[in-house]
Design goal:
Distance between the termini: 64 Å
Strand content: 5-15%
Radius of gyration: 23 Å
Mean pLDDT: 88
Bound molecules: protoporphyrin IX containing FE
Number of helices: 19
Number of strands: 14
Structural class: alpha+beta
Helix content: 40-55%
Length: 506
């Protein structure tokens, strides 16, 4: 109630300034205003999601920076929308600002929140009390609980690591062998295949069976749970924009066959969550690292976030890496030289595959899985970048940290700073940057976020993606037909063609 009251007071307070068109931001790094309508400008779409453009979120972000390259000041990389009656929206593709805002996101008084607005559909599918959606003390408490099973010290503790790498490798080997047999059985030299569904199934299998210890049959994963999760994730994106009443899908009446199907997919997602929680009783997988007496019901929402979120992010990351290597055969051969003799995956052997590491970094830079990070100002806040630029952000501002465009801009990642054009896939830029003494903490690609809300699944995700992509390169040579590699985007980004490649056995 108090926040409803506070929200309306804020709304009334900012109205006169909004009607006069006064910039709500101040400081020496002022963002510039984006008009709601801009007829004849050639802008790709309107600067907010609506039923006709929500399936092209990258275009919405692009709209904010339409014509911005001709600006001289901070407006080149910082833009805002201010519609009377609504809170201002700030969109930044300035890595210094992104770093300052992610560093200042947390549970302390006046720090930025993770903006729940773009995750409303996710929260309706999983529950609100999750690491991803919650803010303040509830988020902090869940963060502490997740630290042990996901932490680097757990996953990379030698004994634990061997156990994981072995089961992951076994799973991947089984799935890739099936592909190999399919190719050999076809009597052909090459097999044209969309790899995204294969990657998705193996990622979900590793998560449910190897990480959480639930023994679900692969066929069930592939034919029952992956399609259900795909549909749920699809509804999540639609639901965020279109479901203004905020009614969860399971409460909808079965008015259409589509609605009945949606409910069936949500029920399967629930069932998958039950199977994962069942493994907890026997302390299987990493459950034994999870030191909490919280009842299963209290964990349900977070498990759903892990299942749906991790599946999306790891599939996106691995699909992009394979997609880039399929268009850069020289890079693929260099990775092959590094992984061809690696049989044992240990932190040391993985570390020794330096070029492969750069390929993975370059993948997350150029094609980040999570392409924007949402934040909200909980109070009037001054932020400062590490090079001393300051911006005042008023309370209530919705902030979109536009990772996609920050990572593709010449100013930040182009020839002058890194030796290679920003929009090229060039793993060599990382060696060049190291040679130039550019500290990695100064040149962040934000692929796993930054600051207190950095991805807790980073080490698990890196391990899974490294093993899947490494095993693919070791067994097959793969080539894309189309040199272009555009993105489709929903909860995460993925190659538009479903990672279509021609596979050939090595
Ligand atoms: C390997 C691929 C992955 C990528 C690229 C990725 C990326 C990210 C990014 C960028 C964030 C920051 C969001 C923000 O700042 O607003 C994030 C947060 C998060 N990730 Fe990941 N992630 C990956 C894998 C995983 C896995 C495997 C899990 C869990 C099993 C996971 C669970 C989470 C959770 C729960 C959060 C929210 C953390 C918080 O707000 O405190 N992620 N991820």
């Amino acid at each position: 109630m108090a926040s409803f009251f506070q929200h309306n007071v804020l709304r009334i307070k900012r109205l006169p300034r909004q009607l006069l068109g006064i910039n709500p931001f101040t400081g020496d790094s002022m963002p510039t205003r984006v008009p709601i309508f801009s007829p004849g400008s050639g802008r790709p779409t309107l600067p907010f999601p609506h039923p006709w453009n929500f399936s092209q979120p990258i275009s919405i972000l692009e709209t904010y920076f339409w014509g911005a390259d001709s600006e001289q000041g901070a407006g080149k990389h910082n833009r805002y929308l201010d519609v009377p009656g609504f809170a201002p929206v700030l969109v930044t593709r300035d890595p210094g600002m992104i770093r300052a805002i992610t560093t200042e996101t947390g549970d302390r008084e006046g720090q930025f929140d993770r903006d729940p607005l773009p995750s409303a559909g996710i929260a309706r599918a999983t529950g609100k009390d999750t690491l991803l959606y919650a803010n303040g003390p509830s988020w902090k408490m869940q963060r502490k609980l997740a630290a042990s099973p996901f932490g680097k010290t757990t996953l990379f503790q030698p004994e634990k690591f061997q156990e994981f790498a072995a089961t992951f490798r076994h799973t991947i080997a089984q799935r890739l062998s099936a592909l190999r047999d399919h190719l050999a059985g076809s009597g052909r030299q090459t097999l044209r295949i969309q790899l995204e569904p294969e990657i998705k199934a193996v990622m979900l299998e590793m998560l449910t069976n190897n990480f959480f210890g639930a023994g679900i049959a692969y066929e069930e994963i592939r034919t029952r749970y992956v399609p259900a999760l795909e549909r749920v994730i699809d509804y999540i994106v639609r639901d965020t924009v279109l479901n203004k009443l905020g009614i969860p899908v399971r409460k909808f009446p079965n008015l259409t066959s589509g609605m009945a199907q949606a409910k069936q997919h949500y029920a399967r997602f629930d069932h998958l969550t039950d199977l994962v929680l069942d493994a907890r009783k026997d302390g299987k997988g990493l459950w034994k690292q999870f030191k909490s007496d919280a009842p299963d019901e209290a964990l349900r929402s977070n498990i759903k976030v892990f299942l749906a979120g991790a599946l999306e992010a790891t599939t996106s990351y691995a699909s992009w890496a394979i997609s880039h290597l399929a268009r850069n055969l020289q890079a693929q051969d260099l990775v092959y030289q590094e992984v061809k003799d690696i049989d044992e995956y240990t932190p040391e052997t993985l570390d020794s595959a330096k070029y492969f590491g750069q390929v993975l970094d370059e993948t997350l830079r150029l094609t980040p899985s999570l392409y924007f990070l949402p934040r909200k100002a909980t109070a009037d806040t001054w932020i400062a970048t590490s090079d001393g630029r300051r911006m005042f952000i008023p309370q209530g501002t919705h902030i979109l940290l536009d990772i996609w465009h920050a990572n593709r801009h010449e100013d930040h990642w182009g020839i002058t700073p890194t030796g290679f054009p920003a929009i090229d896939f060039a793993p060599e830029r990382w060696a060049e940057m190291a040679k130039r003494g550019l500290a990695t903490k100064e040149t962040l690609h934000f692929g796993f976020g930054h600051g207190p809300r950095v991805c807790p699944g980073k080490h698990l995700g890196q391990l899974e993606v490294g093993l899947v992509v490494g095993a693919m390169v070791k067994m097959f040579r793969f080539k894309a037909d189309n040199p272009n590699n555009p993105a489709k985007a929903g909860v995460s980004t993925k190659p538009w063609d479903g990672t279509l490649v021609d596979l050939k056995l090595r």
